[in-house]
Model the fold of this input.
Amino acid sequence: MSDISLKLDSTYTNLPDIFYTELSPVPVTNPEVVIFNQKLAEDIGLDLTQLNPQQKADLLAGNLIPDRCTPFAQAYAGHQFGNFTMLGDGRAIILGEHLSASGKRFDIQYKGSGRTPYSRGGDGRAALGPMLREYIISEAMHSLGIPTTRSLAVISTGEIVYRENELPGAILTRMASSHIRVGTFQFASLHQEKPICQALLDYTINRHFPDIQDNENKALSMLNRVMELQAELITHWMRVGFIHGVMNTDNMAICGETIDYGPCAFMDVFDPSTVFSSIDHQGRYAYANQPVMAHWNLARLAESLLPLIDEQREAAIELAEDSLKGFEKIYKSKWLAMMGTKLGLQDVEPGDEILITELLDLMHEYSADYTNTFRDLIKKEPPSNKLFLSDGFNQWHARWKNRLQEKNQVLESSFALMSSVNPCVIPRNHKVEEALHSAEGGNLEPFHNLLTALSDPYQENERNHAFQLPPESGAKTYQTFCGT
Ligand code: AMP
Ligand code: MG
Done:
């Protein structure tokens, strides 16, 4: 304990005891700040300026716990690649909840903070490379305008972690609107005690959806809200070519933020079946399967909520199924509107879907780069690549231009719209690897350069140019790993 004044709530610990275990992070040998997100700290009014550098490193590593904090690890369950498992924070501990000046509540969580009762076989630790990877990709997602957990800091621990090799250890300090997952509701429903599920439902509604508090069927209302948020989130992922890679139910946050940046990666060449995760052999979490898997996860959420939806099981199932049936339609209309904006269309009309899918088919056929193709559409001088030189594309291009100029729509306004939704900089795998490799060797300059480029991803400029180039090999062979 310490005398530093950091006022944090821990409302989560008002839930029944089974939802968490109180414990402190396991102290690390020699914490040093590798990167601290000053901008984020300022934005949310988290003032650490009173701390000296050592105190700051100690606090962000979990070596120093402010007075009156009650750190805890969460219990949850989850379907991992379709198989149900009991889980929980095996290497994460929540320090508490910070309230921003505007009243927004954020969990502050350490990832890699040592073993917990939920660690199973794991060591509870994390390596520097993967924590910097989460930092850079989550911050890139934020700058792309996508709901996400945020990264506050990466702290090196001065310890070695043992994976396939010996690696430098680190802790990621992250922020989330909450860490309540679909898997938290699955965990609650396992107990088959209505008050337990009811407590979690009430807590979640109070924290995330206070406006539905007085609805007649709160459980169903929450299901509908989560469906909406997930449809929105996946639509964003599809927009920028983000592949989460491990959409297990424990990795789907109720608040609609992207969470768990293990094996995620961005697609270069457009191919709907793209998978990067080394263990996703069936393509369960492939790019184009993400909406399907989100729907599957939402069905698991609905199952967990059944006793709260209606006391009569049959009636509850009917209500839940009715809601779930709506997901496809909600997603489809969001996806169409989003793809429309990628092509500069303010409103999507009948016929536009064909225009959209034809372009995607051509991009697939000619192995076009997903990100660059949409930016190339607005360039005065289009590139001379296979796609742009093909007859099929030129015919499509003429139809698209006609469509844009229908109803006297001004081309400039379409292009402005396109520039605001089609990023020119994404965290390309080869650039991320390059930056991490240097960082692990002690040179953080490439990491900072990449981070700077990613902080303004819709802005075309000289500085960003190096980060826009796809990998030379096409990088279909790029692989990512879970549990790093
Ligand atoms: P993930 O696939 O990253 O969502 O991880 C699944 C579960 O494994 C989570 O509950 C993690 O807390 C746990 N886990 C991952 N890595 C470790 C580790 N090194 N030690 C203990 N638990 C871990
Ligand atoms: Mg996880």
